[in-house]
Design a protein that fits this description.
With 501 residues, the chain is of the alpha/beta class. The chain contains 14 helices and 18 strands. Helix 1 links the parallel strand 1 and strand 2. Helix 6 runs antiparallel to helix 13. It starts with 6 loop residues before the first strand and ends in a 24-residue tail after the last helix.
Length: 501
């Protein structure tokens, strides 16, 4: 394990939900595993008036009650700041300098922007104006939460703003899906096993499905979500990043630029979506009122903060093609939505059937295809589906599972996505972070859809009852594949069932 340098973590938006529910628990777990190093300090920054003691008490509510927590909480500090006001930043620099002297640490600083996106261009500018981007006395790194813009133009504008004040190698655009253990294991599965790489191409793979479903609706985020939608919220970032991990060529080495260069090549190879084909390749949906387990469930337009006539999508499914030597002719299907039957994210590699169907008669005329299922969440693991003979006379064949579950590793510590990504940033490893050119290229892929939805009121918006797997038109998207979509359950082994909420 790489040695962790002394450092200070500065969290902007420290009074918010992400800080108390994700960031502070992740930093605590790293400390508990002796991975944060010493000395270190965590400085919370936001507009809310609080003392160090008040901030510590508030964060303690989200930590276990033990000696390690008591020790960790002593490393927490707080500074009230108008983050949009340049005049407050000399005081922030002074507080950071005081902390450095107090804990006897060099000027290694990680800034985490857990703030509204409109502050993304301002905070780096104000930090730079007081010299907090200068690495002459220690590293200065900036973690930025999504969204990285709302379309291609705004993403380019944001990147230009950021690069005025920080270098690209100081910028860490976080996508917490890439921090999940199974996503990282995808690279190891592909490139450390000679079994898979010869099969990982158009000769043996029929199609690829990537699903990220949520059982919840928009909850209290209706006002925000109604200006975002599933395409911006999930497809442009999480799903396209996972697609690139599946489709990329082997990197020459395992480091940030080598991997991100290969992911960029995938984005560059995705066939541009044409206006005249969008209705064939893209399905847009919005959940409607329904009953789940006998209880009435509101439709999206009935949610708090949502326009009663909203055409914002809560579901997207699409077909993408990668025009390169490895993937020519093989479709990639991605779908994501809210108020679906279960919360699950997985990648399904569907292999082509055998060229001669010896056992069709035993299977009543059908042969279940081989599938490799890479489960990102929950019940993280990898499952291989294959046909084997049923014991007894004849050649009756049934599909069986051969799998690996992270839950079986009782002695191994599996870090959360935020733990892994925070530690990587402290170590200066940007492998699992998005680079600016990758972000822009991902926006370029979905921009034709955004333009069409913004300008064509006749583009279909399909309703689907809350608690179902999306619009019926989604099945038409998969018409070329008799096996259709996989309907996953929370338990990785319970596939092939229609799971209810």
């Amino acid at each position: 394990m790489k040695k962790t340098s002394p450092h200070i973590v500065v969290i902007f938006g420290a009074s918010g939900d992400l800080t108390k529910r994700k960031l502070i628990p992740a930093l605590f777990n790293l400390h508990q595993q002796n991975l944060l190093g010493h000395p270190f300090a965590i400085l919370g920054v936001s507009r809310t008036e609080m003392t160090d003691t008040m901030f510590r008490e508030k964060m303690m509510e989200f930590l276990p009650d033990n000696e390690t927590s008591a020790d960790f909480i002593g490393h927490l500090y707080y500074e009230s700041l108008q983050t949009s006001d340049e005049a407050d930043y000399p005081r922030l620099k002074e507080r950071i300098d005081d902390l450095r002297r107090e804990i006897n640490a060099p000027a290694n600083i990680l800034f985490y922007l857990s703030t509204p996106p409109n502050l993304y261009p301002l905070i780096p500018k104000h930090l730079a104006n007081v010299g907090l981007n200068n690495e002459s006395d220690g590293f200065k790194r900036l973690i930025i939460e999504k969204p990285f813009g709302s379309n291609l133009e705004s993403a380019r504008h944001l990147n230009r703003d950021l690069l005025q004040y920080f270098e690209e190698d100081q910028l860490y655009r976080i996508d917490h899906y890439l921090g999940k253990e199974t996503v990282q294991n995808l690279l190891v599965l592909r490139f450390s096993n000679s079994l898979w790489e010869p099969l990982w191409n158009h000769k043996y793979i029929d199609h690829v499905q990537i699903t990220s479903s949520e059982s919840l609706g928009v909850e209290k985020r209706g006002g925000y979500y109604d200006h975002s939608g599933a395409l911006r919220d999930m497809v442009q970032n999480h799903l396209l990043q996972m697609l690139a991990m599946v489709a990329m060529e082997p990197p020459t080495v395992i480091n940030a630029d080598a991997i991100r260069n290969e992911m960029l090549k995938v984005f560059q190879s995705i066939r541009p979506l044409k206006k005249e084909n969008l209705q064939e390749d893209v399905v847009r949906g919005q959940y409607t009122s329904s009953h789940i387990k006998g209880e009435a469930v509101a439709g999206y337009r009935e949610e708090e903060g949502v326009d009663p006539e909203s055409r914002t999508e809560t579901f997207v499914a699409m077909r993408l093609n990668i025009d390169n030597w490895r993937w020519g002719g093989i479709p990639f299907y991605i779908r994501t939505g809210k108020k679906l039957p279960t919360r699950v994210t997985e990648i399904v590699i569907n292999f082509k059937p055998t060229p001669h169907h010896l056992f069709d008669a035993a299977l009543n005329g059908t042969t279940a295809p081989n599938q490799l299922i890479i489960r990102i969440q929950p019940d993280e693991g990898i499952l291989m589906k294959m046909g084997l003979k049923v014991p007894g006379a004849g050649f009756m064949v049934q599909t069986v599972n051969m799998g690996f579950h992270y839950s079986d590793l009782s002695d191994a510590y599996v870090p959360t996505a935020y733990e892994r990504l925070l530690l990587d940033c402290i170590h200066g490893d940007a492998t699992l972070y998005s680079r600016g050119d990758n972000v822009e290229k991902a926006w370029e892929i979905v921009q034709p859809i955004i333009d069409e939805w913004d300008t064509n009121p006749d583009f279909p918006l399909h309703g689907y009852p809350a608690g179902t797997w999306g619009p019926l038109a989604t099945d038409e998207l998969m018409a070329a594949h008799p096996s259709g979509w996989r309907y996953p359950c929370k338990n990785l082994n319970n596939d092939g069932e229609y799971c209810e909420l």
